[in-house]
Amino acid sequence: MEILNFIIPFIVLLTIVVFVHEYGHYYFARKYGVGVTDFSIGFGRELFGINDKNGTRWKFCLIPLGGYVKFFGDRNVFSQAEQAELLKRYNESDRKKLFVVKPLYQRSLIVFGGPLANFILAIIIFAFIYMFSGKDFTPAKISEVQENSPAFSSGLKVNDVITEINDNKISSVLEVSTHINATTNENVEIKVLRNEQELSFIIEPKEVMSEDNLGNKVKRKIIGIKISPLNNEFDKQKLGPTKAMYYALGETWFVTKTTLKFVGSMFQGKGDSSQLGGPIRIAKITGQVAQFGLIAFLSIMAYISISLGLINLFPIPLLDGGHLMFYAFEKILGKPLSQKTQEGFFRIGLILLFSLMFFSPFLSPHIQHRENQRHHNPG
């Protein structure tokens, strides 16, 4: 039964995130007159489905680990390279519904629509949380500095108020550990307010293994401080729509930016591979977080939605970013790449895609540190 507590929330979450992603493709396809024959959640054998008045089959399939939208006339991933042959198969009316005959900018928007929808979903979720649950604005005031710690050696003192970490404004006590752990450099720059004077410190965090509030072993970066709100009361405020949207955009941008930095550090050999997590680990974390309630579940949905949007923009064949890369070549060359060239790219892309399926560096660091910060203070 315990495994169901992980699998069910994960499948529910993944279904919603994948549906939104595929609907982004579907929306722009319909907007530009492209026929859509299939809208599938999952792969493999169809479990159930319905046909709409436009001829689209909306269906759920056996393996719920993804989804796809199939356009009218698409036989395989090389349809673009077979455009002349494809046009001969259809009459003039049907040709207008073909994806391959649409202008380059329309095809690009249809492909980009999926990741775009994921980012929009994350922004809406964050804004919803800030409006109806609230956002914390408790000042990050240091209540304790451990002796012989990196913070102690650098000169941080009790009652210092942390205002910035690595040029990121700190508006809440809950953001301190997140920004320290998000750094891909050896040192972090921390700015504090002390007696109305702003001071800057360069600190090298210490890495330690600890157990998070979900019971998982994680490697954390600490500087040796404790931050406790006055009387243990947090300043949580419900925001209006404009402010909520502002902070939602900021959170989405922060997660996107730091994720890309983390991926870059992995390519440079500097990233921490222990922070990688595939579907099994992500499913476990999803189930654990879901036990904290709806807001926690929505939060992790937003982070995974950003992750799905980002990974699909990677310039890897078979992903949306790979198709956009081909369109860039088409723009430069004035014609689509040949089928033989695309086949070579897709073979490489298939290998990379399987690697990404089992090692997802874009998820675990943000999910774990963000959710943990809702329950304990930075170290």
Break the fold down into its secondary structure elements and pairings.
Elements lengths: L1 H30 L4 E16 L5 E15 L11 H5 L4 H4 L8 H29 L2 E2 L3 E6 L4 H5 L6 E5 L2 E2 L6 H7 L5 E7 L2 E7 L2 E6 L5 E6 L2 E3 L8 E2 L3 H27 L11 H12 L3 H20 L6 H14 L5 H20 L5 H9 L7
Antiparallel strand pairs: 1-2, 3-12, 4-5, 4-11, 5-6, 5-7, 7-8, 9-10
Helix pairs in contact: 1-4, 1-8, 1-9, 4-7, 4-9, 4-10, 6-12, 7-9, 8-12
Beta-strand content: 15-25%
Structural class: alpha+beta
CATH topology tier name of one domain: Pdz3 Domain
- Beta strands, count: 12
Tell me, what's the shape? Answer: elongated
The portion of residues assigned to helices is: 40-55%
Most strands sheet: 6 strands, antiparallel
Could you state the CATH homologous superfamily of one domain? PDZ domain
Radius of gyration: 24 Å
Query: What would CATH call the architecture of one domain?
Result: Roll
Given as residue ranges, the uncertain stretches (5+ residues, pLDDT < 50) are 361-369, 371-377
Distance between the termini: 35 Å
Question: Mean pLDDT, as a whole number?
Answer: 83
Could you state the order of secondary-structure elements as H and E?
Answer: HEEHHHEEHEEHEEEEEEHHHHHH
Q: Report the top-level CATH class of one domain.
A: Mainly Beta
Number of continuous helical runs: 12
